[in-house]
Amino acid sequence: MKSEKLNDSLIEAMKEKLPKRVNLVNVLMNTLFIGKEAVYRRLRGEVPFTFTEASVISNSLGVSLDQVAGTCSKKNALFGLDFIHYENPIDTYYSNIQNAIQIFRAVKDNSTLEWYIASNVIPQIFYMDHDNLSRFLLFKWMYQHEKINQVKYFSELQMPDQLQAVQREYVEISKKVPFANFIWDNMVFHNLINDVRYFSEVNLLTDEEKEVLQKEIIDMIDNLEELATQGKHPNGEKVTIYISNINFDASYSSLEADNFKCSSFNIYSINSITTLDLDVFEVQKSWIQSLKKYSTMISVSGEMQRIQFFERQRQLVREL
User: Fold this and answer.
1) Which are the contacts of 164, defined by CB distance < 8 A and separation ≥ 6?
2) Is the pTM of the predicted complex or chain greater than 0.90?
3) I need a surface site. Which of 68, 166, 227, 235 has the fewest CB within 10 A?
4) Which residues span the domain enclosing 140?
5) pLDDT tens, residue by residue, 136-152
6) What is the torsional sign of CA 157, 158, 163, 168?
């Protein structure tokens, strides 16, 4: 592809990312720290955007350079890897949460923002404000990987205050999404409870620690039942919750607003991969929506099913 076409494709991609009333010239001046005339020369094609400038634009506006270059076909998509590194798991876990917060900040004022989540694990928005529960899930991941020798018992893992604070920030900002749609695998709590039981039986959790986790899980269930009953967060943002009658092989999430579409997949416990690819987004959104055919809505409506579901989860926790 000739440089002129690449330049034109980059300009078109930027225009698609910006709301109609936003002036592209002003955005580029502030993003690239160049003058108005320099911006106009690039937009007229007299001077091509440099690779460095294109990279800055990509990071700032979410433009996919892969698509601009024409290397993205229906068989290829560009994914970002939000992995926790073995060498410094606490630091990278903290950074991954911060990255998620930045995504929400970028679109939080958009009234069209919608969030679709199909999950076979408890979503972070529901457990991250429970300190011991979030610590346990991080501990489980760290214990599973032999390359990490920092902790062998749950009591040895200490969560820095900074990490606890960023987790709560994530919870608060994710509750500001105007509409969130959750579909839960019907085994979502059962899997968590089995994990707690295992670590207790191999003596990596003390009886006292298990009791603390039991209490936090019960508290979380109580909060979720209230959320399902009201169909909205305390701040008024709407939430729908479905319980699936079939099991999922993974957890999927799609975030959509004007000029912004993001998909993510949970892998390796608390890691994820994320893409801005439009084709992946449409396929994933369609897949999540299709799961409603096998699911029962328990938010606002479905009172009997809601009561029965949450009471079964409490009973499972009591039997730990």
Assistant:
1) 131
2) no
3) 235
4) 79-318
5) 988 888 887 655 556 78
6) positive
